[in-house]
């Protein structure tokens, strides 16, 4: 604006104004770069510290691990004894937790976000060691069991499963140390209610998936992840919000399939926010701020009218409210 006024008054030509603006950009760019050095250096230092933390970690595969028990089979019997855990110097995530899981049983952990449900599964996989307490598998302390051997007997399905740029068949067989036939893959896909939609694809099991299976829906990815876990033939199956994106019909089929797995002696551990997915569990643990505040079957916990009853009532009322609104909207359309 000032330059335009100077041109109008005849104190400056248009060429001089354009030259001034061009030179101004040359002068300001180095100054902006100097100002941006500090946040860039801070980001680099933080990234370097995180990398050093990873580099300083002890390798899981070492001589001590080789001398530990490598189980070919686990009965699925698990015991937590006075376990306390926290990440680094933060507050305790688990506070003196104790519980037992019988072989071939189906148990569930419920509670609000941050209550410690997923942390329990991470400790079961021996990704972390508790600050206090003990964890046992089949009367063996978890420290006596080879980590790789333990994880070979456990299948873990998270809410967000990872897939690679490869065919459906290759993604399902990834990580297995044995040859898997197509018939076996089809069988587990039928169990996981995913075979039907794969059959509708042009190349079926040879269909190429994009990275993280972005060309599939959330429910389809979750069913594929469950099928991949079943291919592993685990002794213990952990489902961490693994059915959150499924519709009610598919969810019912998966629930029936899990009951069949339990009858085969496979221990199933479910972590969920949607209580409708775990009401069939033989034992439900209700967690709050790192503590188990209630435990029992679905019917027992509803009878106690405690925290589980409150969560169940809130979810049921919410569903009924949505259904009533949908019914009202449909009714309005016909008026």
Automatic annotation (TrEMBL):
InterPro entries documented for this protein: AAA+_ATPase, ABC1_TM_dom, ABC1_TM_sf, ABC_transporter-like_ATP-bd, ABC_transporter-like_CS, P-loop_NTPase, Type_1_exporter
Membrane topology: Multi-pass membrane protein
UniProt entry keywords in alphabetical sequence: ATP-binding, Membrane, Nucleotide-binding, Transmembrane, Transmembrane helix
GO molecular function, one term: ABC-type oligopeptide transporter activity
Domain ABC transmembrane type-1: 1-43
Keyword set includes Nucleotide-binding: yes
A single GO cellular-component term on record: plasma membrane
Protein name, entry field: ATP-binding cassette domain-containing protein
Domain ABC transporter, chain residue ranges per copy: 78-314
Record-linked Gene3D superfamilies: ABC transporter type 1, transmembrane domain, P-loop containing nucleotide triphosphate hydrolases
Chief place of localization: membrane
Transmembrane segments: none
The keyword Metal-binding belongs to this UniProt entry's keyword annotation: no
Localization per Swiss-Prot or TrEMBL: Cell membrane
């Amino acid at each position: 604006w000032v330059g335009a006024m100077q041109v109008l008054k005849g104190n400056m030509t248009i060429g001089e104004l354009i030259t001034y603006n061009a030179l101004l950009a040359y002068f300001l760019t180095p100054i902006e770069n100097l100002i941006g050095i500090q946040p860039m250096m801070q980001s680099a230092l933080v990234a370097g510290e995180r990398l050093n933390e990873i580099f300083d970690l002890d390798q899981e595969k070492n001589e001590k691990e080789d001398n530990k028990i490598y189980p070919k089979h686990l009965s699925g019997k698990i015991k937590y004894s006075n376990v306390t855990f926290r990440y680094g110097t933060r507050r305790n995530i688990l506070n003196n937790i104790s519980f037992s899981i019988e072989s071939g049983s189906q148990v569930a952990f419920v509670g609000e976000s941050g209550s410690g449900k997923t942390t329990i599964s991470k400790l079961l996989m021996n990704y972390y060691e508790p600050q206090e307490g003990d964890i046992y598998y089949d009367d063996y302390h978890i420290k006596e069991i080879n980590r790789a051997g333990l994880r070979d007997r456990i299948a873990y399905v998270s809410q967000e499963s990872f897939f690679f740029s490869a065919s459906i068949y290759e993604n399902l067989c990834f990580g297995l140390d044995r040859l898997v036939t197509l018939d076996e893959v089809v069988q587990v896909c039928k169990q996981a209610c995913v075979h039907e939609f794969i059959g509708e694809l042009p190349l079926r099991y040879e269909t190429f998936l994009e990275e993280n299976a972005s060309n599939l829906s959330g429910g389809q990815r979750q069913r594929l992840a469950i099928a991949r876990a079943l291919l592993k033939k685990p002794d213990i199956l952990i489902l961490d919000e693994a059915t959150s994106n499924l519709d009610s019909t598919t969810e019912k089929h998966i629930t029936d399939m899990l009951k069949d797995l339990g009858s085969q002696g496979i221990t199933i551990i479910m972590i969920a926010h949607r209580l409708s997915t775990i009401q069939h569990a033989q034992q439900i643990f209700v967690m709050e701020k790192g503590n188990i505040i209630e435990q029992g079957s679905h019917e027992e916990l509803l009878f106690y009218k405690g925290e589980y009853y409150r969560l169940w009532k809130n979810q049921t009322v919410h569903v009924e409210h949505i259904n009533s609104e949908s019914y009202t909207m449909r009714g309005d359309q016909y008026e």
